[in-house]
Structures are given as C-alpha cells and as structure tokens.
Amino acid sequence: MRQPSAGPVLSISSVVTQPGVLETGTALRSPPQPRSPPLSAVPPMTAEALLEQLHVKLATHPFWEKPLLKACRLGHLTREDYALVFSQYALLLGSHTRFLHALVAQCETEPERIRLTQTLWEEVGLKPEKRPAALFHRFLKDGLGVNADTIRFHDATRYFVRECLDTCLGAPQSSASAFVTLGMEALVPRLYSIFVDGLLQANVSDRYLPFFYWHMAASPGRLSSLEALVLSHAHEPGWADTCLSAMERALELHGNFLEGLFETVHHRRLRPLLERIQARLPLTPEHPDPDTLHLDDLSRVLSFYQYSHEEEGIDFSVDRVPFPAEVLETNVVRVAPGHTTELREHAHEVLFVVMSGMGRMHVRGTEVEVKPGDAVFVPRWAANQARSLGPEALTLLSVTDHGFTRLAHDEEVLRAMRLKRATGVDL
User: Fold this and answer.
1) Separation of alpha carbons 277 and 275, rounded Å
2) Where would I find the Cupin type-2 domain in this sequence (predicted)?
C-alpha cells in the first residue's frame, strides 16, 4: 500500500526561533519573516537539552486536541464507545513488544541490545497473569464486555500497526528509536491518564484498570532506557532533525488512527437506525394499535419534566406523547399564565404548534406573537423561549428530531445514558 504523505517535514533549524526553544514553523504563503539562523549558527546545545525541547514540543502538539481525546476528557463517551475504541487498540498494544524486538534487531552494539532486552524483560519476566497483555484482556472482558478472541480489526487499524512496524524494521536506527521513544512511549503517562479519566466517567470500575496503572508507573523507567538509545546517535549528522521528523510521523499516524476511531464511534451509534431505513420495512404490525398512532385526549400523555423559578418568572411543564417513533419526539409544553419557559438552545430542531392560549415566542433575535393554530419553527442551536401572555396557560405541541440527535450528538448521548441509568426513562 502506498504510504500517504506525512506532509511537510519540520526541521529543527526551521522551528528554533531562540536558543533552547522549539516553535511551530511559519505557515505557507505567509508574509516574509525574519529567517531563523541555521542550526550551525544556533548557540551550541547539548543533546540532552535538544531532547528536552522535543518533549516540550510534544507536550503542546495538536495531537492532544484530537476529537476522541477531547471526548474522553469531557466524559462524552459511553462504555459501549470504549469497547469499540479499545477493541481496535488491542492490535497496537499487542504489537508493542514487536516494535521493541525490531529495534533490538537493528542494534549494532551489545550494550544497546542488553538495554532493550532489559526493557522487554520488564513485561515478559512477570508471571503470566500479571503481564500487561493479560491485564489488558481482563480489562476488555470484565470492564468492557469484549471477547478479545472475536475482535475484527479494521483496515485502518492494521495499516497503523503495519506502518509502525515497518518504521521500526526499515528506518535507520536513529529514526526508529526516536519514533518509538518520542512518538509512542513518551505519550503513555498523559494518554493513559486521559483514558482512565474517561473510563471512570463512563462508570467503568477502577478495579478493571490495572493495565493502565501498570504502564503509567513503568513508563518513566522504560522511557529513560529508550532515551539512552536515542541519545547514543546524537553524534550523527542531522540527528535532531531526524528525531523531530520521526516523532512527527508517529504522532501523525496515531492522530489519524484516533480520528478514524472517533468517526467509527459515531457511525456505530447511528448504524442501527440507518440499517432500518435502508431495509424499507415498516416498524409497525399490519394492524397497529390505534393508541400508538392517534392522540385524542391529552390525559394520555406522560409527565416528563417540570420546572418553576418564581424570581425569574419561569413556570412550565413538559409531557411526553407516547408515540413509538424512532426519530420524531412529540411533547406537550404548558406555560403558566404570565410566565415563561427557560431560555434554551438544543441540538435538535423543533416545530411548535399552539394548541391553546396566547403568547410570544422568542427565537434568537426575533419575537413573534402567537395564537391557537400558529406554528413556530426553531432551528438547531437557536436560543428560544416561550412566554404566556393571556389569562390561561399557553399550551404548545412540540415535535423534534431528538430521536436522531440523541444518537448523533455527544452531549445528548451522555444525557440520555445518565437519565436512563438513574431513572430507567429512555429518552
């Protein structure tokens, strides 16, 4: 498979703007900037200092703002989402020792081979049940309900792992060692901390997470050993630029992998709905119960939400119309005389139809007077509020596509999950 372009390769000489500081390179077609001094003109820095600057660059890299990692931090992923994510990560994690073995194969000196062998022995020297591979399988099975033996790896996952292995086997050792050290091992403490935080927010018990804690604890020692291998090549011409390019390539591959996983998470949520649409089969029997199709009496609605705040003039209720719809959600909203609803904005679209009462509808910067029979449309994310103006309650029939947005929008997915867990009510 042809390797996709890694984009422009950054050079240490193109990103050093002052002694000892790495900065992002100038954007293409930008106004002329003062030219950075060539590497030879930069005041001499030790190899250790240059390595530290690479760690600084890693800490502020756009990699950490990938949508999947943001979703982890915000608690937007469910246990089922993590089951998908880590079923794919299983191939990468199971291949990590292969990457180290590939580095060992490239080592030309005995001390280098001994150092890497010691790093490998930290894992394989443990009792079988305490090895990271066993801990990870227990995490998948007991924490996420995933059988590791039945995982089907995506093509993108296989590509990611194959590119990593090819780099470790085929790139010069100075590049391969930097790829593994700076682009993979150096990520572990922060990356796994993000994962642990997200998993805990998804109600995955801490007792299922020893795999992550083991790696976070072992990483400093492993990283120190691997950095010694990286530094052993510091005498080679262009070493700093080689390390930077290797780190960027590893982060690009990993970042693309995360982006693909995030898209797959969203597709997993919507897939059942899309499949039912494509199947062209009615989701109701030949002779459906009339009560599931016809509402002739508002006494059959289900109380869903009530809120009152007299100081702010808010007093309204929402009742659910129990139609068995997949996408459309129908509610009856009642606003007490002289009061309003909350000023809200939603991921879903809303169609309000006035059933009784007089009032005013606010949609962003526009207000309209409404009476029975009027209809008001509220686009997604448009702030809206209803006010009752007459002596009787303003009663609105609202129809939304919340059945879609509760599957497609991260915060709605999380809200629905938490409500169902707490009350048993399925949004």
Assistant:
1) 5
2) 332-399
Domain at 298-423, CATH homologous superfamily: Jelly Rolls (2.60.120.10)
CA distance 181 to 143: 29
DSSP letters of 72-120? HHHT---HHHHHHHHHHHHHHHHTHHHHHHHHHHH--SHHHHHHHHHHH
Cβ-based neighbours of 314, under 8 Å, separated by 6 or more: 307, 308, 339, 340, 341, 342
In DSSP terms, which residues pair with 18 in a beta bridge?
Answer: 21
CATH fold of 12-23+42-277 reads: Heme Oxygenase; Chain A (1.20.910)
At 40 the pLDDT is 38
Asked whether the predicted pLDDT for residue 66 surpasses 90, the reply is: yes
Listed in order, the ranges of the chain carrying CATH 2.60.120.10 are 298-423
Give the pLDDT confidence of 110-130 residue by residue, as tens digits.
777 777 777 777 776 678 788
Strand order across the beta sheet in which 366-370 lies:
366-370, 359-363, 384-388
Length of the chain: 427
Model pTM? 0.71
Listed in order, the ranges of the chain carrying CATH 1.20.910.10 are 12-23+42-277
What confidence tens digit (pLDDT) does each residue in 158-213 have?
Answer: 999 999 999 999 999 999 999 999 999 999 999 999 999 999 999 999 999 999 99
Q: Could you tell me which residues are beta bridge partners of residue 21?
A: 18
Contact 301, 320 (CB under 8 A): yes
